[in-house]
What we know:
Residues 3-99 form the PilZ domain. It comes from Desulfobaculum xiamenense. By secondary structure, the chain is of the alpha+beta class. It has a single domain, classed as predicted glycosyltransferase like domains (Thrombin, subunit H, Beta Barrel), CATH 2.40.10. The chain is 18% helix and 41% strand. The chain contains two helices and seven strands; from the N terminus they run βββββββαα. It has a six-stranded antiparallel β-barrel with strand order 2-3-4-7-6-5. A hairpin with a 2-residue loop joins β6 (65-76) and β7. The relative contact order is 0.23.
Amino acid sequence: MDDRRKRSRVRTRFPGVVFCGGDDFSIATENLSLKGALCEVLDESVDGLVGEPCIMRITLSESAVIEVSGIIARAEGQVLAVDFENMDPDSYAHLRNVVRLMAEDADLIDEEQLTGGFGDEDDADFER
Length: 128
């Protein structure tokens, strides 16, 4: 498959929760980028949520939490992908640090911050 992604993804396994439509879903991240996340839903199916706004909270440690608002880009069974839209500066700093630390090429992550791509449909194409 042709990889059209504009953001590097790193494999992760952090616990979290996604709040969407009055429900909350326990998740574990599978991969993260500066633009989104692919997650395993731990407690129930999430079919039918594509396009819905959500809040995702990823717990890195007791004192480090990433909280981001986004749109559900994929929701199939126990698989959920979120396209990030907005986060506070502290959350972005935590996300950037995690992605840089786990990336094969941290300099590439820095370059990605300087390029466009946010809001492009290709960024919502999350796969395992």
